[in-house]
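job 3f2a | input accepted
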Amino acid sequence: MMRQRLKRTTRSRRQVLVGGSTVAGTALAGCLSGDDSAADGTDYEVGFGDSETTVNSGTLPDTLYVYCVQTGWSGWDDIMEAFEDEYGVSLNDDQRSSGEALTHMRSNAQNPSHGAFNGGYSFALEAWEDGFLAEYKPQHWDEVPEEFKTDDGHVTTTREMTTAVTYRTDVYEERGLDEPETWEDLKHPDLAQDLAFTPPHTANGLNAALSVNEAYGGSLEDVDPVLDYHEEIESHGADFRRNIDGDFTSGEISTVVETDYSGLNLKYNVGELDEEHVDVALLTGPDGGPGVSAMPYGFGLIEGGDSTEATKLFMDYCLSDEGQQRFYDAYVRPVRAGDLEEPDGFPEDSRYEQTQFRLDQQELLERQEELMDEITERTPLPGAA
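job 3f2a | predicted structure (385 res):
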């Protein structure tokens, strides 16, 4: 499939070098117009509709700061490298969770240090509700489903992840365990003895907890079902961990609950393990109904943030054909997946249809902090805090 490139116009015959990289015209749309001081630079058209503007290469910084854009997660490594190759701007390796980023943003509200907030969609909605995000609609904003963006462009989804179980097939074979198909299967003592969840104060950790909760008849107003579930598996050794990937590849744990991306990344992109020794499962509830929550991830431009023009360029890149395909190729399902070629390795679409559900993101926003606090305080599983 031919990938659409970002539009540019050039106001000089010279090719501008930024940060040691040649700025080519193949990327996402760009920046602010009318800056005569940057007349020798390259202009990039950015934005959709009333957000359309121009960004000039002469205004780009050496380093761009965007919350939670980090190596080792969500396919950002390839996006970061490709953006730097294209525009000569490196991305700061921002190793934070969505919750940590929101806390940092609040602490620096009077002097914003980043250009955009990126993270779990409900966290982005919270940042918008707190007044931190500005209106900006990136190119291809019109192709994002209505339920995955705000009307004014304060928050736009880039990708979606689904709660999934990743397990060591070699360990399961040694123990005589079958592939898990329901959340009930994870209660087996030989499986739960080294089962790990991501802490519930992270976006994917909360999503995993709410997946179990929903599967057992809970709601955003009642999390007793997931806490009861935790109590059952805690007696066999299950816990919460931060370094899930490292503990999984080392063999310290054999089953993890995180996202489909995390599992597929471990299976296909991490060299320490043979592909045949890792598999990913989407679980149903105990009665065979949907059991895994699909969680959108999005971003928003920070009001008065750092390097606004470069941030717009980066946001456009993430929604471009090229940026979206790079997510997909890294086993992150992009929000514009229907326009792109799906790589091999994802679970069958029929399994997603059978197991997947979506939480009301606005309702989740209203109860998110309360839910994280309640699950963290009440869960018997060690490592939640």
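job 3f2a | Residues 361-378 form the longest helix (18 residues).
job 3f2a | closed
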